[in-house]
Please model this.
Amino acid sequence: MIYMSFSNAATIFVTMFVLSIVPGPSIFVVIIRTMASSLTQGLITILGIVVANMLFILLVVFGIGALVASMDGVFVMVKYAGSAYLVWSGIKLLSTKVKQVELEQVDASTWHNNFTAGFIITITAPRAILFYVSFLPNIIDLSKTSRFDILLLMAVATVAVGGAKLPYALLAYKLSSFLQEEKPRRVLNLLAGVVMIIIGLMVALKA
Model:
């Protein structure tokens, strides 16, 4: 039985879509990853962002969200670990040597790197879990949610968050599609590396 009404689902969708489409660190990660790799890898970055949101939803639905939100020490450790990964990822981009024959090939580790980058940029944001903890209980009665409600909620969040990020990935792909020669790609990798390092430092320094 589905307890969540259409109006509740619509409210959740609109709220999450509007919040997700506003430019921020996650948007920049999607853009940079798409331009430095490919549209497919940009979509994988979005998948990492979506999965992190799914985790937050499950924590709130099963009553663990408030506990997690109060664990400042855990969030600090996650934040700095995530920041270190993003900086390291940027350094890797800076040191990557682009070869003409490799422009159409994606390194085997790229899938993991891009998914992890999207996941980390979301999971290291304490405000995200605080949003879910304060928002969802005010929209639906979590004590009455069924298995179908949880699946519907996750589907709505997936479409809202993923749909908000997708245009940025498509735009980045269009902008980078003509940068297939070795020299422009090298410049793009350098730019992507610098941006990733800056984002990593922003994650570490933000409240």
Observations:
- Residues 7-16+24-96+110-205 form one domain.
- Residues 98-109 have pLDDT under 50 and may be disordered.
